[in-house]
Specification:
By secondary structure, the chain is mostly beta strands. The protein has one helix and ten strands. Strand 8 and strand 9 form a beta hairpin.
Length: 135
């Protein structure tokens, strides 16, 4: 069953799984995608130093873009030693926050490389931990 809304010649029809937008002879059908994340992300800008446990002499400087209770996304402007691999474990230090994290994904962007981490352990809690637990 579709629900219909008409506004200035546009017709919007929707049900639980699809949306159809029409205008005159033109019609477009879009699927509704359910959010897969189980917890909210908090956008934040904080410097971070990442150390791969496989090469502790290596340091990557980046910027935390967002954080949740179990994950953190960091942008590295320039990678010098190749792209991190999924499954690599890093120590991330951002101000007073110290986390042990596993690489979940990497995405090349125009501004650098975005690395998504799953937080395995939060040793020292600071501002990042605070924003994930505040209401």
């Amino acid at each position: 069953m579709y629900f219909t809304d008409i506004n200035e010649g546009f017709i919007l029809e929707r049900n639980e799984t699809n949306v159809r937008l029409s205008y005159g002879l033109f019609s477009s059908k879009l699927a509704i995608v359910k959010e897969r994340r189980t917890e909210p992300r908090v956008d934040i800008a904080a410097p971070a130093v990442m150390t791969p446990l496989a090469a502790v002499a290596t340091r990557l400087n980046g910027q935390v873009l967002n954080v949740s209770f179990n994950g953190v996304k960091v942008r590295v402007p320039k990678l010098t030693n190749g792209q991190p691999r999924v499954g690599d474990v890093y120590r991330i230090l951002s101000s007073k926050d110290l986390m042990l994290c596993e690489v979940r994904h990497c995405q090349l962007q125009a501004e650098g490389t975005d690395i998504g981490f799953r937080i395995l352990q939060w040793s020292d809690a600071g501002e990042l931990k605070r924003v994930t637990t505040s209401p």
